[in-house]
Amino acid sequence: MAANAAEMIAQAAAGARLRVVELGAGSADKTRVLLKAATELQGAVVYEPVDVSVSALEWRGSNRTRDRRRYSDAACDGLHARQRAPIAPGPVDFRERRLVIYIGSSIGNFEPHQAAKAVAPRARGTPDGRRLSAGVDQAKDEATLLAAYDDAAGVTAAFNRNLLVRLNRELDAEFDPEAFAHCAVWNEAESRIEMHLKSRGAHAYRWARLA
Fold first, then answer.
1. Interior CA angle at 81 toward 80 and 85, to 5°?
2. Number of Cβ atoms within 10 Å of the Cβ of 160
3. How far apart are CA 29 and CA 35, in angstroms?
């Protein structure tokens, strides 16, 4: 991305003012490369991050303070929304083109038909000159993937078991997270890693809010 950011921005803008709309922006670490290229090319750009996390959309903290100083001409206009929720387009301006970006490798979390449904409405050509740039993960060998998703430090296992923690907290369930083993499996047919929680024995649980 660093090597081709300037060309990506030039093709997306095509001489017009550019609005960069990012789906699932998060920390926007990768986006800084594009914003830098956009401000260098155009002098000004509008950045519209879309994320389910309100805190991720707030330009605060050391990183965002630094970025705002560095990209002072990148106006930020965040939108709080879920990835699958309809996103209302902003005002149509014939002087503006939009680059919708879904970078990283999150698109790989969807089944193929779900991925198409998630990005297609934002990718269709429209009068406002919208373009889409989506990132996908490169294929890696099985040993590397298993080492990452079944790491020795247990970080991914804790992430996986957090599902049970959330169920306990939000639905008054009674799961014991440690009673379930974290299993990372490489699905060769679908070319993806899958994470499962495998019960270590027979259990009986009550979900208070569903009773």
1. 165
2. 21
3. 10
User: Are 39 and 56 part of one and the same domain?
Assistant: yes
DSSP assignment, residue 201?
Answer: S
Per the structure block, which two tokens stand in for 54? Answer: 């309100």
pLDDT, position 180:
96
| pLDDT at residue 21 in the model | 83
Give DSSP secondary structure letters for 147-164: HHHT-TT-HHHHHHHHHH
CA distance 162 to 181: 12
Q: Which residues contact 156 (CB under 8 A, 6 or more apart)?
A: 148, 149, 150, 182, 184, 195
Domain containing 185: what range? Answer: 142-210
Please name the residue that has the structure tokens 């959309």.
57
Element (H, E) at 196: strand 192-199
**Which residues in the chain land under pLDDT 50?**
60-73, 80, 85-88, 125-126
Amino acid, res. 83? Q
Sign of CA dihedral 117, 121, 124, 130: negative
- CA contacts within 13 A on the Cβ side of 184: 20
| Statement to judge: residues 191 and 93 lie in one domain | no
The C-alpha atoms of residue 17 and residue 83 are separated, in whole angstroms, by: 26
Write down the pLDDT at residue 162: 95
State both tokens at 196.
Answer: 């499962």
Give the pair of three-digit tokens for residue 200. Answer: 């270590």
